[in-house]
Design brief:
By secondary structure, the chain is mainly β. It is 6% helix and 39% strand.
Length: 269
């Protein structure tokens, strides 16, 4: 019979502890912040390098700032009753993926309030790990539109404002076109491309350059002509995002408002 000394027993216990500790797990998340769109869905990744025993697994997703619970997996099942009311019905796990170590969630119907950091925390009987996932909002809104009136030879302003997560002067492209797609004005890569406009608008169509940084892409049209009446479409592009608004120039010669001398005193109907 082999007899172990006290020192040998201590070493065996220590070695067992070291081996157990070395079996710990790590979580993997996205390589950077995640872009989400208003009203859309976004996947928040969280996965272990190797699957963890389901019988001792607990997974929780929370807001990092408020601690609000997005979703919880505990004792072998989802716990939707534990969700914060803000996320109820909007978050789900891919439980069929748990056997592969995938603890990601899908967040639906994204709102402005969903921007921020989220914590994925995974527990086993012996340890826990967590990662932080950041979500930012990718959006592009174009406002303006309406109807404006002008006399021939007037100067008129067609309103268009762009709101985005991208600074206005960094937008990929903003265009003004007639309904028949005639290019009235092109703003691209931070500047107006004058020679891209249809010849009849090259001198007469301008932006208010001092207001572009505020997202104001209103069009000033000089020396209005009878043939200018019709629909004008202001469209902003940013990556896969695109949005537009339409302004109608009409009733030439039937003025019902003051002469337009600047875009701050314009009257629309």
């Amino acid at each position: 019979m082999v007899k172990l000394l006290v020192s040998d027993v201590t070493w065996v216990v220590l070695l067992t502890f070291m081996l157990t500790a070395s079996e710990g797990f790590q979580l993997q998340g996205p390589s950077g912040p995640l872009a989400a769109q208003l009203g859309g869905s976004v996947l928040l990744p969280c996965a272990a390098e190797s699957p963890l025993p389901l019988e001792e697994l607990e997974v929780e997703w929370r807001r990092a700032d408020s601690g609000a619970l997005l979703h919880l997996f505990q004792e072998g099942e989802e716990r939707p009753e534990s969700q914060d009311h803000v996320y109820a019905g909007r978050v789900h796990f891919f439980t069929e993926e748990f056997a592969r170590g995938n603890y990601s969630i899908m967040l639906h119907n994204v709102t402005m309030q969903d921007v921020g950091d989220y914590t994925c925390k995974v527990f086993t009987n012996v340890e826990s790990e967590n990662i932080i996932v950041e979500v930012y909002l990718e959006f592009l809104l174009v406002r303006g539109g309406g109807v404006v009136f002008a006399h021939a030879a007037d100067e008129v302003v067609l309103n268009c404002s762009v709101d985005s997560h991208i600074p206005a002067d960094k937008l990929e492209e903003v265009t003004w076109r007639r309904k028949d797609l005639t290019l009235v004005l092109l703003y691209q890569d931070g500047e107006v491309v004058s020679d891209a406009s249809d010849p009849k608008y090259q001198v007469r169509a301008q932006l208010f350059s001092e207001d572009i940084h505020k997202g104001d892409f209103s069009l000033k049209l000089k020396d209005v002509r009878t043939e200018d009446k019709g629909e004008y479409i202001c469209t902003a592009h940013s990556g896969d995002l695109s949005a537009n608004t339409t302004v109608v120039l009409r009733a030439l010669g039937k003025i019902t408002s003051l002469k337009h001398t600047s875009h701050t005193c314009m009257h629309t109907y």
